[in-house]
Amino acid sequence: MTHREILKAFTGLLLALLVALLSSTIVSNALPTILADLHGSQSEYTWVVTATLLTSTATTPIWGKLSDLFSKKLLYQIAIVVFTVGSALGGIAQSMPELIAYRALQGIGLGGLQALIQVVIAAMIAPRDRGRYTGYTGAVFAVATVSGPLIGGLIVDSPLGWRWCFWVCVPLAVVAFIVLGRTLKLPVLKRKVRIDWLGATLLVGGVALLLIWVSLAGGSFGWVSWSSAAYVGGAIVALALAVLVESRVAEPVVPLRLFRNRTFTLSVLASLAVGTAMFGGSVFLGQYYQIARGFSPTHAGLMTLPMVLGLAVASTGAGQVISRTGRTKPFMVAGGISLLAGLFLLSTVDHATNLTLMGGYLALVGLGLGFLMQNLVLVVQNTVAMKDIGSSSSVVTFFRSLGGAAGVSALGAVLAARVATNIANSLSHMGIHSGGAVSGGGGTFAISSLPPALQPVVRGAFGDATGTVFFVAGCIAVVTFLAVLFIKEVPLRRTLDADAPAPAAAAVSVEAVSVVEAPVEMTSVLRGRVLDAGGRPVSGAVLTLTDMSGRQVDVGRTGRTGAYELSANTVGEHVLLATAGSTRPAVSTVRLNGNARWHDLLLDSQGAISGRVRVAGRHAAVAGAVLTLTDRLGTVTATHIAGGDGAYRFTGIEPGAYTLTVSAHGYTPHAEPMTVGDGAAAQHDVELSEAMEREFVRHQGTLSVD
């Protein structure tokens, strides 16, 4: 796709992502009001968030695997529909169980949107250029995070009521669906579809059991109890069986071989900790500002601006620099340090912390998240083949969401226990024994309904307990920093696909067997586009595919869109050559493995000028004519002497305006302007007039003829 086509399709992708993020951020700021209206408790507050995270987490790898098998465009549109239906139903919920169920449906669509946007971007754009586009994604994330709480607060504070927090994004979702339908054009690779339904079921079941246990433990039952043992045991068995199944099937949902890639494994580990720190640490900010500080929903949304601005600056700025330099690790290390500093500083907050200081702490957290989130996916995509883009991207997103879901549940339990302890201690100091009547896990959010004497106690308890949440999140973020520290930096490639390493040959005894080399009969398909330096398609380019011995395997020509398709009945390394007119040929090594892969080629945009020098009025050649090419500043850029037949040729000429000067003994010099286009080959003949026998000489204003 050209840059123009990419921007059009990217608009639809970002609009869909904006809808998903807005729905989440709008609702998160309105949750205290929603729970007060529906008589929810602290544990139900956690479950409203966890339900979405649980289903989005569990389905993320499935969406990713499906994108490797089916149309990415169709899947993205399906995800939009599922998310929109869940949002619309959430607005009509009449009870907490209903709301949690609709949020779970919403999470299924959210899982698709989060996973597939990275997959679609990877299918359109090479890693080296992907940084600036992922920077735009981070900017949308920031805009949604800024405007979401504000919109949510305004809706809650207005006569519309909190239900419109779910409905306001439905029209935008419809627009995103239509835009994607018209602009997103991706090649659909026809592959034999084999879906590992058993592995997917075991994976979803194991993750669900684990997240449900984290959500209920410490409230409905103890962390160390028979119920905990049942949940954990069931999760371990389900996940162990999932690993067994995934290792045996042809098309696993999560290809286990990816974990042999060091960069992939460390990125997964870092994403797990980032998710815990990000979701677990930030989801309670709205609760802190509204309950502990007594702010309105709108005011609470404004207080998160420092974090969002930090995220926006880091994401967009890093994306632009990464596209120019191809380096990601310095930004990820800086992000790890910033995230650690911000979370540990936030661990010092209480119900009376200076708001300016807190804004600075939140800005550090935002910078850290902006440097880390998109780049962890980018470094993984840079090291895997195109056929694994969907699975690898979704697995990283999956573990980030898994960390977030577990973090919200675990930190919610920590917060509830800490709040209950703080309330009990405060009441004890007042000479009141609560007798278990006040609980951090079961208390309602309608603080205004409490006796005036108790309201400061509850607000102080929530405020003082919030620091503990950020401390735990900071400890987990240490894992993120260590993981990115050990990621080996690989310069971002400029091609869509990666050359996978050759499979290791089994070690055999030379004496035991005689080795006979034979070609492996497997059909490989190589597709891609030939582009010029400006990203424009080059039509009519000739492509030649040869094996390493120089034998021609296939030959083809690009069409109007610069697209080509070649095939080979062997695997291994091959040489791909692209030529077009007078442009400098492009050549690269590609590895074919029996599957379809995508490989783009860039042709140099330098042009050429050629022709003949003849005598004016006759067809006789002017041998030995000197041709000089000068630029606009008068600098000589190239010189050529015409051959015996008067032929000349300038190659490797940069696009621009030039002056061609031709001179030869016995002929009148000739000069004329020339324009060289991108990769253009100009044919231009020059005619020289024979010099006159008479010479005109001007002496002191008088013209004399000798």
From TrEMBL:
Pfam families: CarboxypepD_reg (PF13620), MFS_1 (PF07690). The chain crosses the membrane at residues 45-63, 75-93, 105-126, 133-155, 161-183, 195-217, 223-245, 266-288, 300-319, 331-349, 361-380, 401-420, 468-487. Its main location: membrane. GO terms for cellular component: plasma membrane. The keyword Cytoplasm does not apply. This is MFS transporter. Keywords: Cell membrane, Membrane, Transmembrane, Transmembrane helix, Transport. Belongs to the major facilitator superfamily. TCR/Tet family. The keyword Transport applies.
